[in-house]
Known about the structure:
The complex is a heterotrimer of chains A (254), B (294) and C (927).
Chain A: E1 12-17, H1 26-37, E2 45-46, E3 53-54, E4 59-66, E5 74-80, H2 89-92, E6 99-101, E7 108-110, H3 120-124, E8 130-132, E9 139-141, H4 146-149, H5 162-166, E10 172-176, H6 183-191, E11 207-209, H7 223-229, H8 240-253
Chain B: H1 5-25, H2 33-56, H3 75-100, H4 105-127, H5 139-155, H6 159-187, H7 191-195, E1 202-205, H8 215-220, H9 226-249, H10 254-277, H11 283-286
Chain C: E1 17-22, E2 31-37, E3 40-46, H1 59-62, H2 64-68, E4 78-80, E5 89-91, H3 94-111, E6 116-119, H4 126-136, E7 141-142, H5 145-148, H6 150-160, E8 168-170, E9 177-181, H7 189-201, E10 205-209, H8 215-219, E11 222-224, H9 231-244, H10 250-256, E12 262-263, E13 279-281, E14 288-290, E15 304-306, E16 309-313, H11 314-322, H12 329-336, H13 340-356, E17 359-361, E18 365-366, E19 372-373, E20 376-378, E21 381-385, H14 387-390, H15 395-409, E22 418-420, H16 485-494, E23 502-506, H17 518-526, E24 538-542, E25 555-556, E26 567-569, E27 581-587, H18 600-610, H19 628-634, H20 663-669, E28 673-677, H21 690-699, H22 715-724, H23 737-743, E29 763-768, H24 784-787, E30 793-796, H25 797-802, E31 810-814, E32 819-827, E33 834-838, H26 855-858, E34 896-902
Parallel strand pairs in C: 6-7, 6-23, 9-10, 9-21, 10-11, 23-24, 24-25, 29-33, 30-32
Antiparallel strand pairs in C: 1-2, 2-3, 4-5, 4-25, 8-22, 12-16, 13-14, 15-16, 17-20, 18-19, 26-27, 27-28, 29-34, 31-32, 31-34
Amino acid sequence: MTTLPPKTAKKLGLVIDLDTCVGCHACVISCKGWNTENYGAPLSDQDAYGTPSGTFLNRVHSYEVQPPEAAPAQLVHFPKSCLHCDDAPCVTVCPTGASYKRAEDGIVLVNETACIGCGLCAWACPYGAREMDAAAKVMKKCTLCVDRIYNENLPEEDRQPACVRTCPAGARHFGDLGDPDSAVSQLAAARGGFDLMPELGTAPVNKYLPPRPKDQLDHPQTAEQIDILAPYLAPVANSPKGFLGWLDKTLERL
Amino acid sequence: MHPAPSLIAFTTLSGLGFGLLAWLGLGLPSVTGVTAFVFFTIAYVLAAGGLLASALHLGHPERAWRAFSQWRSSWLSREGCASVAALLVMAAYGAALVFWGQRIAWLGWLGAALSLCTVFCTAMIYAQLKTVPRWHTPLTPALLLSLCLAGGALLAGQISLAWPLLIAAAVLQLLAWHHGDRAFARSGTTLGTATGLGARGQLRAFEPPHTGTNYLLREMAFEVGRKHATKLRGIALTLGYAMPVLLILLPGAHVTAALAVLSHIAGILASRWLFFAQAEHVVGLYYGRHTPRT
Amino acid sequence: MTHPRPHLDTSPKVSDEVRKTTCYMCACRCGINVHLKDGKVAYIEGNRDHPVNKGVLCAKGSAGIMQVNAPSRLRAPLKRTGPRGSGQFAEISWDEALELATSWLRPLRETAPEKLAFFTGRDQSQSFTGLWAQQFGTPNFAAHGGFCSVNMAAAGIYTMGGAFWEFGQPDWDHTKLFILFGVAEDHDSNPIKMGLGKIKARGARVIGVNPIRTGYNAVADDWVGITPGTDGLLILSLVHELLRAGKIDLDYLARYTNAPVLLDTDTGLFLRDADGKPLVIDRNTGLPAAFDQKSIHPDLGAIHTVDGKTHRPVFHTLAERYLDPQYAPEAVAERCGLSPNKIKRLAAEIARVAFDEAISLPIAWTDFRGERHSHMTGRPVAFHAMRGISAHANGFQTARALHMLQILLGTVETPGGFRFKPPYPKPAEAHPRPHFKTTPGQPLDGPHLGYPQGPADLCLDDNGQPARIDKAFTWDNPLSAHGLMHMVISNAHAGDPYKIDTLFLYMANMAWNSSMNTAGVMQMLTDTDASGDYVIPHIIYSDAYSSEMTAYADLILPDTTYLERHDCISLLDRPISEADAAADAIRWPVITPDRDVRGFQSVLIDLAHRLKFPAFTNADGGAKYQDYADYIVTHERKPGIGPLAGWRGDGSQTGRGAPNPEQLQRYIDNGGFFVSHIPETASYYKPWNMAYQDWAVGMGLMDQPTPYLFQLYVEPLRQFQRAAEGHGAHQPPEHLRPQIRERLDPLPIWYASADSDCAEYPVHALTQRPMAMYHSWGSQNAWLRQIHGHNPLYIPTKLWQQHGFQDGDWARVTSPHSSITVPVAHMAALNENTVWTWNAIGKRKGAWALKPDAPEATKGFLLNHLIAELLPPKGDGLRWSNSDPITGQAAWFDLRVRIERTAPPTEAHPSFPPLTSPVGTGPKDPK
Ligand SMILES: Nc1nc2c(c(=O)[nH]1)N[C@H]1C(S)=C(S)[C@@H](COP(=O)(O)OP(=O)(O)OC[C@H]3O[C@@H](n4cnc5c(=O)[nH]c(N)nc54)[C@H](O)[C@@H]3O)O[C@H]1N2
Ligand SMILES: Nc1nc2c(c(=O)[nH]1)N[C@H]1C(S)=C(S)[C@@H](COP(=O)(O)OP(=O)(O)OC[C@H]3O[C@@H](n4cnc5c(=O)[nH]c(N)nc54)[C@H](O)[C@@H]3O)O[C@H]1N2
Ligand code: SF4
Ligand code: SF4
Ligand code: SF4
Ligand code: SF4
Ligand code: SF4
Ligand SMILES: [Mo]
């Protein structure tokens, strides 16, 4: 495990729909709650009632996009946790072997009892998916809820990551991205799921679904689109009197 | 990246220490007995002291032994292995010099090679990181090795080697800065690729995920003002390279040599501070750093 | 040298026990599974079986554990020791606390019950607290609706028997176009997110109308970045376009609305038959008929001439009004901050989906005129709106306009449109009217709040003076159906209409984020009269936490947290129903408090007994209810009808039935809630669908079928207008006549909301709720406050550049009332004349057990300092209130400001002296 497994049997991961995420931070907090009680050391908080700083495994950013034409600016909420990269640089840099990628499902984990807290894996991760816990002094990261997804103490339907289970908008999907027939693979294929920072060669498992095209009311693609909608507003009459005339005629026909 | 004083001191001093060890291994200067003892002590204090200090700064120093295990993939692990090997070999070699006045040349060469190897590994820890484009270049090991050799030569009193090496290191330093200042832009990683939203238009980080700070921001989103950096570069160049060259080329005694060493160390500390402080990690993009403002 | 793979337990035990109850961090009231380890809360997740959230949970809900662990929790009853506002208290026993309260309250009840003002904030037990106040005998009771969303509620009730929000919901499963007006978060928090997710998954379209594009509006496919306060104009312009194009559902209008009802041409009131039923012309006979007569077909177009007078149907007046060119897109666009083309395309898109994509469900049903329909037809355009249109001084009429738009399209209670949630629909006439008659020592003559049908229903005493301390139901704001909590403190301070003795508040942070003119309120609460006594002599307050408000109380009754008490989310009140089902729920003590606190409702029951309220006292003088749990089970509103509808009688009865001592246990066994599904044939067209009417009678939601028509034309408004025109026995004061004539129009109108044309204050300033924070109380939550620890003022690109702002800058923001200095940030997806910030992030130093250097107290700020309860003087010698002239709804979003760049101060201004914390400060590194 000093190196990455040449191939993993499954590629478990998340598909995150940027068209649907409303930026509510529910996934952030349910992750914090679950992982404070479960896998490894609790996610600690420092100066919690002063100027706080704490460990979170999942965070929601937001970005503003100004399209080139005079179209209105857009806002995209952007949740981010570990992408469980196929070619995970965080694993290979780890001097202790504490960081590893599981051959059976591709989940990237930190064995906290072996972690020396050197921080190098966090430097190697392009995505900011690793945070050193200031109390436990070990590296924390998203476990893909490995202690939920196989957990026989949970009802079958709950064997999915805490963040996925809680997401009110249904913007997070969990499954095997190694299996082209899985629901998540199909979804990613249908919606043009993409990788973050593909140029870095990390081959993330998690996929992001792009926001759908926006603001059709503002920039008609073509002139005929106006024509498509225009007939809907063709006046039946131009004056109230005319309108009442139309009304009478129409009521006759009802 | 956060310019942690411990890291700056460790890399600077251990680099010097291993540089000195390397020259000692090559028999430059060829010393024995008490003189050898003094040289080796200085080298070990710098090299091993730096290592130890950094180990003590780990979250879990009691587990530091585990760091020797992953030499097959991890440059940090390799650094650990190489450094221990170098220190052990050089200890045997030095003992022979100090106690028996014997120079076991092949052992010296091996030790020198391991010492340089250690510095190379240290450099590769940074150079391997695609996440920090400024570091991700052969210039990083080249610069660190050249500094190790130049500083080592300075400490070893090898004037004729030291000044050309210092000039070479200065050139590499300038190249590294020149390259570094463009590296992030050239890397092709932008907020656009980081979010996959680049093709949709002009992108800007809006609200951060948290209003306070966190590990990532403290560790990786350090920013230095351009003015401040330029000033420090001047200081680094003057103290780290120009002054030592001037001082050792002046006719003089140990005073100037000692001054040259001190000046060099001060300059390299400044340069090393910049090495970290100016290194932009791509994760900063997610937090709206390193993006041209509109 | 490789390590063995670490052993990993992928099936760890999750918890010792799961207890299912109801979340409290907002009015959405989701079901939660509380995981316990060693008797302590370990983890909270959503309850999958729950009708509201179906397993999902928002950030606040998931962070509930930190609400229970919060160091700001009060520990025991507190009696003030220092001056009011200092925060100095001594802990006392409950006995002492209750005796003290009783010693203040008893003499009031016996002599002048109106001298108690009991206002209960964001109360989830209003049917109970209302009963308590009624039993006390004071007319001065309301909850927070007046400063929240009464415009939305009242406009909905008067127009169609229910509003958006908790009264109904979009038909998430069928809608093809969802248009959202002025919503950042809403009460229906998780369901809206789930609904948006459903719509998105189906690839249907979402349009957001909002000056700010965040959250729901960010995921909207189209964004209409309207100028605040002008939605009414936009909507009436859409109506104009749709009418002009004939894109309205004539059949629906004729059958289910008062569009065909005949207006008396002299009075503008309905023509009625001898039984008082509004008349329509039956197309079958051409003769007038009562609207609900069997098998008639009301005629939308027919006019009725009697005695040479021509009476026309509502629809004629309506069409004439909105076809007027003043509503043409070209005429309104600039004012709305939109282009005429965009308005037209929006109208066209609505028309396209409503009429080209109409859907039809093969569900047969019978309407109230006895006609059988084989299908349910829907025009799948759904609307939803909340405070963005509600919290303006033209909000009532704007909300009315939106309801009119939906009704013209035929999308209310039809598939793909908007659907009511039981006990709604419930028209205004089916609600009580307001009551205010006090008798010392006796209960009030009826419920406080209601829906006036005309001037006779106002709460005015024999001299025409306001009977209530908040002046609700007066000529100033006749339809103030939720009261005016935001006026209580200033009126009590002014002794206008009279002085009170005791202000009793529950769950409202009135010294901070729920008040306008925050500094002024703090002043009023601490003001003394000539003899050095406080102007408001006694203040009792129940909070669970050390909020800003606690510092202003004389006596604090510390509440438990939501996991430690019984609560009831009742069909008599604001239940958790869905469009397909009636549902109610409970909370129960899933953990035991570790301190000397008591559930507030149980404390009220204790007080009720001490004060010997008839409804709380047995014939033998003993307490009728032990505590709130007992009340929930045994109280009967009417025989057989109590707070909870599930498992009544022997446990097999629903809705109606005798009290069942096992009831709470049955709720607990069922996960804390009860659901009764509406039969499929009753699922749409509820106001007119006999299957629904019968089902609702069975459930105890009403006593007999009450089909009714949607009120495009609201006759009670006309009644008020007529009074202002000089008709009738009840006459408004002269200075209010013009306002009533103009604003209380029976058909929706638009007028510029108060204050909005000042050249000196050109910028609109708004707040939005952050999804991960609940008003002031998220800040004591160690997790949530890391997400929103301070708030910048967001500034649109145009203003940003115009003022030369840079990142990290601060601005001075000035309104006609006051000025604040705050950090700014740039935002492009924002109406170009609007600035905004997150609501209620700023905190006062010393509150919430936060350290004085907490970012909430140094950089966080409130816009409330800029908003006054009174408008600036207009030069007519009067002070007009900053509220809707119809309902009294606080007009938070009418705020206008000017901004200027300023040197960064050390902290946000204004800053107030720190409070002494009665609970100390939270620990540095918890756990
Ligand atoms: N600028 C601006 N101001 C606004 C608004 C806005 O949009 N902009 N919105 C307005 C609206 S709609 C509202 S509803 C108000 C809300 O304003 P408030 O009703 O004041 O809201 P909260 O901050 O939730 O305060 C409620 C109080 O209840 C206490 N509390 C919490 N849990 C419990 C409990 O279990 N028991 C008891 N007894 N107390 C508890 C809290 O500690 C807090 O002190 O704000 C209004 N103010
Ligand atoms: N997370 C969370 N949830 C909450 C609460 C909370 O504090 N936190 N509070 C609860 C309470 S008490 C309430 S009342 C509800 C309120 O829920 P919302 O109605 O969503 O209230 P606000 O957050 O005030 O959002 C008002 C929205 O209206 C927009 N707006 C303002 N003026 C105009 C206008 O003129 N036209 C249009 N079209 N839009 C406008 C604002 O930009 C903002 O998006 O939320 C409830 N739910
Ligand atoms: S996202 Fe970062 S931490 Fe996760 S596998 Fe990829 S590189 Fe490693
Ligand atoms: S911090 Fe821990 S997991 Fe990360 S590289 Fe160091 S030892 Fe490995
Ligand atoms: S999968 Fe689990 S650990 Fe990872 S972000 Fe989601 S909740 Fe957190
Ligand atoms: S819970 Fe879902 S909608 Fe909310 S921020 Fe996370 S991914 Fe987005
Ligand atoms: S929406 Fe969130 S805070 Fe409100 S009740 Fe549901 S889980 Fe609780
Ligand atoms: Mo509210």
